[in-house]
Structures are given as structure tokens and as C-alpha cells.
Predict the structure.
Amino acid sequence: MTEHGENGSDFRHLNEQWSARLLGFKRGVGTGPCLPEYTELSAEFKCLSNPNKGPYCGSLHFPPEKTSEDDLCASLDEAIAQSERKTLTRAPQ
């Protein structure tokens, strides 16, 4: 179950308790008189039940407190995957 507060959301995923907090905004780049169709929000995911995990940075289409638990989980999964890819590309050969 997701708990929404004014600064974000707490939710359960991967057998851990997580917190999602808004970090800032990302806007797509466009030219001409039209603005991009959407703006993404940058969110930080912290593991509340195991502080040794994360934090991870991900993207949301709505503030965490207005995002469904399924979307929070999907964004966290992508943030973890991106973090693992970065770690693999930085590993010494």
C-alpha cells in the first residue's frame, strides 16, 4: 500500500519499504512555437528498510504523491537497472 504525503510517497517493493521524493523537473527540448508534450519529474528513491540500498534517481510523469504504486515501482526498477548499467560500464577491465 502506498502512503502519500505532501513531500512524496512511501511504498513497498522488492520486499523493502521505499520513499519517493521529488528532486526537480526535466523538460523535453523542442523548436518552434510548440513546447514539448510533457515534462518529466526527477525523483529520488531511498530504501527505508535497508539504508545500504540506493539512493536511486528515476523519472516520473507526476509528483510522487500523485503517482500510482505500479508506476512508482516501475520507475524504481528502471532507476535500479540504470544504476547497475552505470556500475558495469565503470568497472575496471
